[in-house]
Amino acid sequence: MYINPVLFPQVTNREDLLRTVALFDDDTGAPIDVSGRVLAAPGDFTAAAWVVTSNAVVTASNTQLTIPDYPIADEMQALSLTVGAGLAIAAGAPVTIADAATGLNTMTGYVTSYAPATGALVAQIGCAFEFEIRGHTHQHGYGGGYGPSSFIGTDACEAPLISAQLGGGLSLIDIGRIEIRIPAATMAKLRHRTYEIAMSAYDGYDSRQLFIGKLPVFSGGTRLLPLQTPQPSNPYGLP
Known about the structure:
- The chain folds into 2 domains: 6-29 and 128-218, Immunoglobulin-like (Sandwich), CATH 2.60.40; 37-125, Thrombin, subunit H (Beta Barrel), CATH 2.40.10.
- It has one helix spanning 184-187, and strands at residues 6-7, 11-12, 17-22, 37-38, 45-47, 50-54, 57-61, 65-67, 79-82, 94-99, 106-115, 120-125, 128-135, 162-166, 169-174, 177-182, 193-202, 207-218.
- By secondary structure, it is mostly beta strands.
């Protein structure tokens, strides 16, 4: 996929970009759960008593938290809770948060920060995603201002024209399925040309490129905003 970028279906710059990315295990063909949570029953689960485990540390939290069912935006990207103070919890360490009553509703991720003095802990649950659309360039045969590894540090990397993350253009809609929705007002930044398009995932420890590709964009045939509502005296909008 990296040597031969995916060619995405063409769109216009006067419509929403709506695509679904599906992630499957190469060996089993099963969808990959990137949400980092398990629910004992369908629907959101809310509780105020949790068991928090990070490596050898096991502590409790009375913070009210909600484990969301699909669709999921950025609710768990910076989950804040209070646990015991003075614990040997390090940033970057794995963490599991399970409901104290049954242990069947869980969230798994990595510690973003922990304050020993107060017990304030912030965790990233599941994967974070970065989606970008960049201008196409032929420098070294690569696009978006990026070049081969031997040229890192010398290529001029331009900023993405459009970027999206969970809660801002991206959402998890099912197991292993990520929806990309870029509104027409944002797509209007693009011109009639082919753009570089890419997406990566970060689970708090590992980063993985999900795809790179090319997105043909055509100039739309209408104005960006809908036409004004005709007046009753002039229902056909005649001048």
